[in-house]
Amino acid sequence: MSAFQHPEKRKAKVNAFGNGYQRLQEVVSQVPEEALTFRSRKDVWNINEMLVHLADLEAAAYINFRRAIAEPTENIFAFDKDLWVESMNYYSQPYHASLKLFRLLRASNYLLLKNISTDGWLHTVNYPGQGQVSLEDLLDLYEQHFGKVIAEIHHNVEAWRKETGK
Q1: Are 145 and 102 in contact (CB under 8 A)?
Q2: Tens digit of pLDDT for each residue in 50-77?
Q3: Residue 120 lies in a domain
C-alpha cells in the first residue's frame, strides 16, 4: 500500500476525495434516464444500483475513517456488496435519495480527513481481506473503488447507446 506519503500528496488526495460528489454529479447528469436500468450483461449491475451502492459504501467509509482515527488497530466494517444489492433490492430503490446521502456523507468524510493531525494518518486498522492498512491506504482503497464505479457507469452508458442507437 502507499501509506505515509508526503503531506502535499496526501492533501491533493484528500481534495480529490472531497470533490467526489461533484465528479459523480457530472457523470450522473450525462446519463439518459432510460439508461439507468440498462444492464450491459445479465450479471452486472445497472447504473441505478451502482449509485445506491456508492451511498452504502460512503456510509461504511464514514464509520471506518472514524474508527481508524479513534480506535486504531481494530477491525473495520466490510460488507458483501452482491448480498447487499440483492437483499436490499437496489434495483427498485430510486437513486436520488442515495445521491443526496452520498453528498452529505462525502462532505463529512472530507472535512474529517482534511482536518486530522499528521499523527492520525499513521493509524492503522484491520481491514478484512486486506490486513492492516493505514488511514491513507483506506482513503486510497475507497477512491480506487469510486473510480471503478465511475468507469463502469461510463461503460454502461456507452453499451446502452450502442445497443439502442441513441
Answers
A1: no
A2: 999 999 999 999 999 999 999 998 888 8
A3: yes
